[in-house]
Design goal:
Layout (H helix, E strand, L loop, with lengths): L1 H12 L9 H8 L3 H7 L3 H23 L2 H14 L1 H7 L8 H20 L10 H20 L8 H13 L2 H5 L1
Helix pairs in contact: 1-2, 1-4, 4-5, 4-7, 5-9, 7-8
Length: about 180
């Protein structure tokens, strides 16, 4: 039921602005009463955040245990690519509950989990996993926005995945010296 609700929000956003969409419209499109919506979500922003979690974080977290970073990034970028029209519209949700903040927050969840499982002991010990997770989330959120609004058609999923890996694995000092 939860996925039906958030997928109907995704569909509604392709027809009208997020700000104009009501809980009633989401419920009507799903064929449920408002109480059902509130069993799963606090409000429509929470529902929108669930879309971001599903598209970006869920698969990446699953890959952390069984796959590689490359696979996780590729799966996430495929979800974004498959829903590019939605993402272009969703970036218009700004303010206190902005879509971009949702992307950053969900990516931070992914990086916290990844660092908790894989961080090398003794590496940059003075920086917490939370700080590092937020830093890398910011970087990848920038990359996702670039991917959604790209003007360079040669940047496909694999090329973007490689760009993210390259940029995250090279420090500024590597570029300068």
């Amino acid at each position: 039921m939860k996925s039906f609700l958030y997928e109907n929000l995704r569909d509604l956003m392709q027809k009208q602005m997020f700000e104009k969409i009501t809980i009633k419209q989401i419920c009507d499109a799903t064929g449920v009463i408002r109480a059902t919506f509130y069993n799963y979500f606090e409000d429509k922003y929470d529902c929108l955040n669930c879309i971001v979690y599903h598209d970006i974080a869920e698969g990446m977290i699953a890959c952390i245990g069984s796959g590689t970073v490359e696979e996780a990034l590729e799966g996430m970028l495929k979800n974004v690519e498959d829903n590019r029209a939605f993402y272009k519209l969703a970036y218009n949700v700004t303010g206190q509950n902005s879509f971009e903040d949702m992307i950053r927050d969900n990516l931070a969840l992914v990086f916290r989990e990844y660092l908790a499982r894989n961080r090398r002991p003794g590496s940059l010990e003075k920086y917490s996993n939370d700080l590092l997770a937020r830093y890398y989330a910011e970087c990848v959120a920038f990359d996702i926005r670039e991917f959604v609004f790209r003007k360079d058609s040669s940047l496909g999923i694999r090329e973007m995945r490689q760009m993210i890996i390259d940029l995250m694995s090279v420090s500024l000092s590597d570029l300068l010296h």
